Amino acid sequence: MQSPIPDYLAETLGDIASDTSGALADYIPELAAADPERLGAAFAMVDGAVYGVGDVDTEFTIQSISKPFAYALALADRGFDAVLAKVGVEPSGEAFNELSLEGGTGRPLNPMINAGAITAHSLVGPEGIDATARLERVVDGLSAFAGRRLMFDDSVCASELEHAHRNLAIAHMLRSYNVITEDPATVVEGYTRQCSLLVTTLDLAVMAATLANHGVNPVSGERVVPEPVVRQVLSVMFSCGMYDAAGDWATQVGIPAKSGVAGGLIGALPGQIGIATFSPRLDVHGNSVRGVGLFGRFSSDMGLHVMEVPAASRAVVRSNHVVGEEPDAVRVIQLQGGIRFAGAERVIREVTDTAPAEHHVKLDLTMAYSIDDVARRMLLEIVRRLTLDGHEVSLIDPEGILAVPISSA
Ligand code: DON
């Protein structure tokens, strides 16, 4: 049987293909030469399965989609405090190339606009690194996100550098506030080269899936950045990734995302999927018109809005029953699924409400597949309290998700 997923992708691309509104970015002359009809979409699941339909092997420059990844590298290399001292996390509500510096400090509002991205680029690698080594770190890092060696498009880079007056002006302002501490032209050159890295839609889907997979590339298996860095990056993508359209995007699509002026667009839904689309015509915000349309469809067709989550807690207690008869009766509470705070609270309530009369209480985690630290602490606390109340508590935990000795049932 053929998977219905590529069929779904093909059908959705077909529906969106007739939208020829928008325009190619022309402030970078080389981008105005792109084929405006190109259209592709790819899904990369967090277990490494990848689907792609349309022009998913066509290379184009990554542009602003490099920003969340370079920000991730800066956070990983310099630490949160050093990066946050230089770049904020507030949405600017303005265009990507606005100056948008915080009054007083001169800190760029966020790392998704050019001012913040130029600064984030300057923070990649250890302190004191030279521009060449820093760019190498950027290429190595972004390549690890993609799972293959990425190359530059020298002509797009040269074309942008010839007209980079605005980014140079931004960089000079940043230098005047000591937000960047090096020669502004050198930093802009490095940032522009970063933006000129060539990617395909498939690469972008895997890069997004690496964010969705808590920082581990699901195809190569490599841990690229630590988990707390990913949380920070996805949060900033959610509030700032689509520039002055970020609010519309957050409400209507609801997937942390980032666009680029060459027509790429990525979205990363934590724990589920990385999505990428490619279509070069842009709207007034600099976001791909057909990309925005495709993401709207994907989100509503597949229920991908981050605020739409199942009521996991209600289903955590699978059963609560007594096996055998006194004096050998055992109270068995069977748990299932993924257990987080609300699920653990449900278990606690089940135990306290039941107030088991039986001496022996068995907590069966056979059907539970994951538990986070908070829920683990809560369950261990309920075990401790039951024990203090005089119960004999045993755990059936074949996968060791509570990370305590497995009961022999
Ligand atoms: O700095 C610039 O203007 C470009 N290299 C990148 C801008 C961009 O991709 C904006 N996103 N939609």
Write up what this structure looks like:
The chain has two domains: 4-302, DD-peptidase/beta-lactamase superfamily (Beta-lactamase, 3-Layer(aba) Sandwich), CATH 3.40.710; 312-396, Transcription Regulator spoIIAA (2-Layer Sandwich), CATH 3.30.750.24. It contains 14 helices and eleven strands. The longest helix is centred in the middle third of the chain and has 16 residues, at 131-146. α13 (341-354) links the parallel β9 (330-339) and β10. Helix content is 41%, strand content 16%. The protein has helices at residues 4-16, 66-78, 80-84, 114-122, 131-146, 154-162, 165-176, 184-195, 201-212, 227-240, 246-252, 289-302, 341-354, 373-388, and strands at 40-45, 50-54, 60-61, 198-199, 257-259, 264-269, 273-278, 317-323, 330-339, 360-371, 392-396. The chain is of the alpha+beta class and 409 residues long. It is elongated, with a radius of gyration of 25 Å. The strands form three sheets. A five-stranded antiparallel β-sheet has the order 2-1-7-6-5. A four-stranded mixed β-sheet has the order 8-9-10-11, with helices on one face. A two-stranded antiparallel sheet has the order 3-4. 6-diazenyl-5-OXO-L-norleucine is lined by residues 63-64, 96-97, 114, 160, 167, 195, 259-261, 286.
Tell me the CATH topology of the largest domain: Beta-lactamase
The overall number of domains is: 2
The top level CATH class name of the largest domain: Alpha Beta
| Strand numbers in spatial order across the main sheet | 2-1-7-6-5
Helix/strand class = alpha+beta
Number of beta strands: 11
Q: Choose one word for the global shape.
A: elongated
Order of helices and strands: HEEEHHHHHHHEHHHEEEHEEHEHE
Number of helices: 14
> pLDDT average, as an integer?
95
Over all CA atoms, what is the radius of gyration?
25 Å
Helix content: 40-55%
